[in-house]
UniProtKB/TrEMBL annotation:
<feature type="region of interest" description="Disordered">
    <location>
        <begin position="1"/>
        <end position="34"/>
    </location>
</feature>
<keyword id="KW-0675">Receptor</keyword>
<feature type="domain" description="Protein kinase">
    <location>
        <begin position="75"/>
        <end position="337"/>
    </location>
</feature>
<dbReference type="InterPro" id="IPR001245">
    <property type="entry name" value="Ser-Thr/Tyr_kinase_cat_dom"/>
</dbReference>
<feature type="binding site">
    <location>
        <position position="103"/>
    </location>
    <ligand>
        <name>ATP</name>
    </ligand>
</feature>
<keyword id="KW-0723">Serine/threonine-protein kinase</keyword>
<keyword id="KW-1133">Transmembrane helix</keyword>
<dbReference type="GO" id="GO:0005524">
    <property type="term" value="F:ATP binding"/>
</dbReference>
<dbReference type="GO" id="GO:0005886">
    <property type="term" value="C:plasma membrane"/>
</dbReference>
<protein>
    <recommendedName>
        <fullName>non-specific serine/threonine protein kinase</fullName>
        <ecNumber>2.7.11.1</ecNumber>
    </recommendedName>
</protein>
<dbReference type="Pfam" id="PF07714">
    <property type="entry name" value="PK_Tyr_Ser-Thr"/>
</dbReference>
<comment type="similarity">
    <text>Belongs to the protein kinase superfamily.</text>
</comment>
<keyword id="KW-0472">Membrane</keyword>
<keyword id="KW-0812">Transmembrane</keyword>
<dbReference type="InterPro" id="IPR008271">
    <property type="entry name" value="Ser/Thr_kinase_AS"/>
</dbReference>
<dbReference type="InterPro" id="IPR011009">
    <property type="entry name" value="Kinase-like_dom_sf"/>
</dbReference>
<feature type="compositionally biased region" description="Polar residues">
    <location>
        <begin position="1"/>
        <end position="11"/>
    </location>
</feature>
């Protein structure tokens, strides 16, 4: 039978004419079709979301070392995107044209193949619009490589502090603050086991073409089981962002992440780095901001806190709300000033041998309290609350 006739016959059997009209159909036929549509819609809603690799157009999750070497031009210097405490990151292009970011992990991780695969399997299932998706991995001898989606617009650190960069406007800063909060809230509240990032900083916030924030490196964070309130571990993180209680005790909770996020809020507000290495007194951002924050809590002006490059081009209510969120907590102003003092500094000096940085400087951090992120059921998270504090509402989609 010709194809056209076959198609017409199929259409007739469904009670539908190919020319757009309706063929004769009994009420039983209509009821059957209605039932079919109802079941089909129900089944469609029940389908689980696709693996991030599939959703992003990748047809594999396991890569060969040779394939990744070819994609990155032999891990060339020209393809190097950056390096950090976990290893080097290179840009790559697969044969199908898909762009990727390949992280070569340091080889002293001591992690076996089975352990590595198990961790990757968990992390690769984490998918959120404000998280950088892990789409695959490679195991080649002792080498471990992770393959991520490529986020094209660089880091928050680059756009906020990079030499010669245009001034980031206030709506963009607010958009990044809320977007990254959504990502962190998802890690803390919606992942099982919950994921504590451990290294929240501007360099780990990637930006897409629309300056939507995507949290990076969460895949290398410590996984925390729900039946533990903290994880005791070797201190990891970046000087200037560390919560004092984490730096002094090594006890890691999601509140440690929120403290680091608060430092990042201060960065967005002030336009200053967490630590100004060009300044002889080496004051942290927190030390610099403390006197102004004291004025704010006493009803004074916050003008001295705002990035002067913004001029008057910001919403005063939004700015005040962000400053309040950076300050708000269950401790008093005296606690803000005293936290991270001599006692904490002495405790930290005893743990310097297990740290990746000079912990003798960390005792200077101590204005922000450790709050908690909260996430809403519909996934539109971005609010972070503490006790009876008011919620900061999402202002971006």
């Amino acid at each position: 039978m010709p194809a056209a006739s076959s198609a017409s016959q199929c259409g007739s059997e469904l009670g539908i004419r190919m020319d757009g009209g309706s063929a004769a159909a009994t009420s039983d036929d209509e009821q059957q079709r209605d039932e079919f549509r109802r079941v089909f819609r129900s089944a469609s809603r029940a389908l689980p979301p696709p693996h991030p690799a599939v959703a992003l157009g990748f047809n594999q999750s396991s890569f060969t070392y040779e394939g990744l070497a070819a994609a990155t031009c032999g891990f060339s210097q020209g393809n190097l995107l950056g390096q950090g405490g976990f290893g080097y990151v290179h840009k790559g292009v697969l044969p199908n044209g898909k762009e990727i970011a390949v992280k070569s992990l340091k080889m002293n991780s001591g992690q076996g193949e089975r352990e590595f695969q198990a961790e990757v399997d968990i992390i690769s299932r984490v998918h959120h619009r404000h998280l950088v998706s892990l789409v695959g991995y490679c195991i080649a001898g002792s080498q471990r490589l992770l393959v991520y989606e490529f986020v094209p617009n660089g880091t928050l650190e680059y756009h906020l502090h990079g030499a010669g960069r245009p001034v980031m406007d206030w709506p963009t800063r607010l958009r990044i603050a809320l977007g990254s909060a959504k990502g962190f809230a998802y890690l803390h509240e919606d992942c099982h086991p919950r994921i504590i990032h451990r290294d929240i900083k501007a360099a780990n916030i990637l930006l897409d073409q629309n300056f939507d924030a995507k949290v990076a490196d969460f895949g290398l964070a410590k996984l925390s089981s729900d039946n533990h309130t903290h994880v005791s571990t070797r201190i990891m993180g970046t000087f200037g962002y560390l919560a004092p209680e984490y730096a002094s005790s090594g006890k890691l909770t999601e509140k440690s992440d929120v403290y680091s996020y608060g430092i990042m809020l201060l960065e967005l507000i002030t336009g200053r780095r967490p630590v100004d290495l060009t300044n002889d007194d080496e004051d942290s951002l927190v030390d610099w901001a403390r006197p102004i924050l004291m004025q704010v809590t006493e009803g004074g002006s916050y003008d001295g806190l705002v990035d002067p490059r913004l001029g008057d081009n910001y919403d005063p209510q939004e700015m005040l709300r962000m400053i309040v969120r950076a300050l708000e907590g269950d401790v008093s102003l005296d606690d803000f000033i005293n936290v991270g003092g001599k006692g904490a500094q002495s405790a930290m000096l005893g743990s310097s041998s297990s740290s990746d940085y000079d912990v003798r400087k960390v005792g200077k951090n101590g204005v922000l309290s450790s709050q908690e992120f909260t996430s809403s059921e519909d996934g539109h998270t971005g609010e972070f609350v503490n006790g009876n504090s008011q919620e900061i509402r999402n202002r971006t989609s």
